[in-house]
Specification:
Elements: H1 2-22, H2 27-39, H3 51-69, H4 71-76, H5 92-97, H6 100-110, H7 123-141, H8 145-153, H9 161-175
Helix pairs in contact: 2-3, 3-6, 6-8, 7-9
Length: 181
Amino acid sequence: MKRTTLALLLLVTMAAACGSSDDANSAAKRKPYVDAVMASNSVSKPKKVSAATADVVRRCIADSAIKNVSVPALVKHGLKPADLADKAGNSSKFGEKLTVAEAGQFVDGLAHVSCYTVDSASAADKDALKKRACVITGEIKIKGFRELIIEFVRNKDLGTKVNSMRDEINKVSKACGVPQG
């Protein structure tokens, strides 16, 4: 009996210790950054869905991206929510301060496919979101695509790199039932 009590006490202590480290990246700490991303053009609205559904998806994606990078990492780089709130979608101050690994974490958050599952969405919205999730999953599998998006987040000149992947991107979209053009 004493071993069980000791094990339980150890588990509770470990859980409490783990919980305190997450407080710095809690939903409350992320909220100002998420709100800033929502106010910017950084996360595009999914097409062919209602405004309410689009906002749910955008907020989920923004939160996922900020959670992946982490508020402590943003603070370490001196980044404030205002640095992410540019209405033009210009993320120069934000992107240039991230390391390649952090930009990768941000991109992985942007590609968080579970954000495209919205229980309250209409059948038509669910169909459009399913296609968008299919496209994102396919695009990430294109060789070099993730790295290209990381460069974009970090404000590197992409030059003709996007054009070299255009055929692959179009194939993914077509396979997912998304019309071209």
